[in-house]
Amino acid sequence: MSESHDSAVEHLEIHECWDLLGANDFGRLAVATETGVDIFPMNYLVRDREIFLRSAPGSKLASITQRPSIAFEVDGRRFRRRWSIVVKGNIDRLGFDSEIVESGILELKSLNPTAKWNYLRISPESVTGRRFKASRR
């Protein structure tokens, strides 16, 4: 991990980012739409440095079909330290049963109980992370 000039923000190494991504299961998917950007809360899993999601039909799927470039953010805290990981890359639908089974996505539980039969994969182009000490309120 490297620290910024003021030592308030630590920039995480890539392995630290993946460790945090793998230890969590809830993030936010940002997709470009015709009218701007939408953000969707999503459960996810990590396998082989790719991120897998399940989705119901709707505007999210329509947007990523036309504009597959996305951002995905996960954040959390441990004691008085906060962290944030941002993944930028492309997203695609898994099209083969073998891909779906090998990804492990069928085991992913969603906080939202709607049926989600669309299986998605984020192929990262960049992964960045930061950690900082939370200020007192």
UniProtKB/TrEMBL annotation:
Supply the Pfam families for this chain: Pyridox_ox_2 (PF12900)
SUPFAM superfamilies for this protein: FMN-binding split barrel (SSF50475)
**Name used for this protein in its record:** Pyridoxamine 5-phosphate oxidase
To which species is this protein native? Marisediminicola antarctica
Taxonomy of origin reads: Bacteria, Bacillati, Actinomycetota, Actinomycetes, Micrococcales
